[in-house]
Amino acid sequence: MEAPLNADSPLDPPATTSAQRRYWVGPRHLAGDDGRLYDAVADTLTGLGWTSLTIIRGRQEPDEEPEDRQVLRSTVLHISPDTLRWAQWILADEPFYLGDLPVAWQISARGDVGSPLAQWSAYFTPEVPGEVLVDFVTALDARDQPVFPFGGPEAVVDAVTAHGWIRDVDQPATAAIDPTFATHISLGDVPSLIQDADPRTLTKEADEREPAGWQAWAEPVLGARCLWAASFSSSTPDDLVAAFAGSLSSTAPVLRRLLPDSTQDLLLRAPAT
User: Fold this and answer.
1) Rounded to the nearest 5°, which phi and psi values hold at 221?
2) Whole-structure pTM value
């Protein structure tokens, strides 16, 4: 049973103990990650049988003591049993940004174990709700062929409009916005540095457009910094993006101890008992 939510239910101030109260909150797409984005996804991947590795790259100067070695990059890498899909927690690495937000998770897949390159990649910043990424990686894990396309763009828009989101007037088949006009999902230009194996991303002429990819973001205050952002390279199967979109737009409340400052006034909430 879904908990009744009340926008006027007071929140406890930030607590430093594990006894901090929890709340059922909604809408999900504005609820943030509760400070558990790594744990939520990593625990799910471990439960699915994925292997985790920690990769550390560094530099040691001549005559430098080992404890003084400069660590340049460290990544927690999770690999599926068939090695066709992997997820990297890269927040602690050298910064990689979507807009002005650092990327936390990069999730990729390839079609052949003989290829070292990802066919597609998806990127997620902090404050993407953990429940949404859990549903995305679960859908990815369940696929026999992680790169084969299923469905089409309409599946993504249908997934959010089924939960009350509104089709974009100018792009009704490829873009939608939530009823509060704070969160968007659309098929369009892909940000720079997004990795994809489609050769058209490398061979396009100057006057040609790159293949489009799905982008999603939450902008609670128009013109202010986004709460979170997600980017899917052009070859990401639409049905996997639809799994992300359907979970993102779900009307089921989520449990939270911590709420983003920018959305506290926009969230409905009820104490969890």
Assistant:
1) -120, 120
2) 0.86
3-state secondary structure of 186: strand
Long-range residue pairs from 152-155, CB within 8 A, at least 24 positions apart, any chain:
152/238, 153/187, 153/238, 155/238, 155/239, 155/241, 155/242
- Please say whether the dihedral angle defined by the alpha carbons of residues 250, 152, 166 and 175, taken in this order, is positive or negative: positive
Distance, in Å, from the CA atom of 157 to the CA atom of 136, rounded to the nearest integer, reads: 16
Walk along the chain (273 residues) and give the pLDDT tens digit of each residue: 344 454 443 344 344 444 578 999 999 999 999 999 999 999 999 999 999 998 877 666 677 776 776 666 678 999 999 999 999 999 877 678 998 999 999 999 999 999 889 999 999 999 999 999 999 999 999 999 999 998 899 999 999 999 999 999 999 999 999 999 999 999 999 988 788 877 665 555 555 667 899 999 999 998 889 999 999 999 999 999 999 999 999 999 999 999 999 999 999 999 997
**Residue 190: C-alpha distances to residues 4, 117, 214, 217, 230 (Å):** 39, 19, 8, 13, 11
The encoded tokens of residue 264 equal 């506290």
What is the spatial distance between Cα 236 and Cα 187, in angstroms, rounded to a whole number?
12
Within 13 Å, how many C-alpha atoms sit on residue 41's CB side? Answer: 31
Cα 33 from chain centre? 10
| Residue 25, amino acid | V
φ, ψ dihedrals at 270, nearest 5°: -150, 140
Nearest to 236 by CA among 216, 259, 257: 216
